[in-house]
Design goal:
The complex is a heterodimer of chains A (about 120) and B (about 120). Chain A has about 120 residues and is an all-beta fold. Chain A contains no helices and twelve strands. The chains are: A mainly beta (about 120), B mainly beta (about 120).
Chain lengths: ~120, ~120
Amino acid sequence: AQKVTQAQTEISVVEKEDVTLDCVYETRDTTYYLFWYKQPPSGELVFLIRRNSFDEQNEISGRYSWNFQKSTSSFNFTITASQVVDSAVYFCALSEKSGNTPLVFGKGTRLSVIA
Amino acid sequence: DTEVTQTPKHLVMGMTNKKSLKCEQHMGHRAMYWYKQKAKKPPELMFVYSYEKLSINESVPSRFSPECPNSSLLNLHLHALQPEDSALYLCASSQESPPGKGGYEQFFGPGTRLTVL
């Protein structure tokens, strides 16, 4: 069965600090996909990144970076030099190639960036 | 264009009302989804349409009735709802339809905030 755990329920940081959001997943499939979504107070889920299980390269996009480690079943998300606009709930999600559920979400991490 | 639109943005209805939520995408996606999200919880999948056919119904009560008139539109008909159905209803679309395939990112609309009195 597939499962995503985001152990951090809420994080508060001061603007310009770096922050890492943790995501640990469980799956029996060898082919699977990992995602991060951002949900600002307005409510819309914004897609940030997709990773497939065969691509362990880390990725950087501006102030965002992702660290995918199959050995520890983790897909962590780091925001560098955080800004107030980064305040949101961030969801990690998993999709198995042979699974019946299209997307399994973690419970989310609420990030508050204080000016 | 990576936009999914939803109307209305807000909806207040009584328990005896009938209303509909609408969702539209023009990305050529052939899979569309309805999710329900309660406060401080992740989205919960309700329905999946693949090529305009219902492929997943997550044991949703019959007072929620989905409809996919064409590949761009998705409706959710509401009837005799309960106060506990108050939530944010999110529509999403993606390139492929799980299960068995998939792994494509889903693009979400802004949601409809539903309040049932």
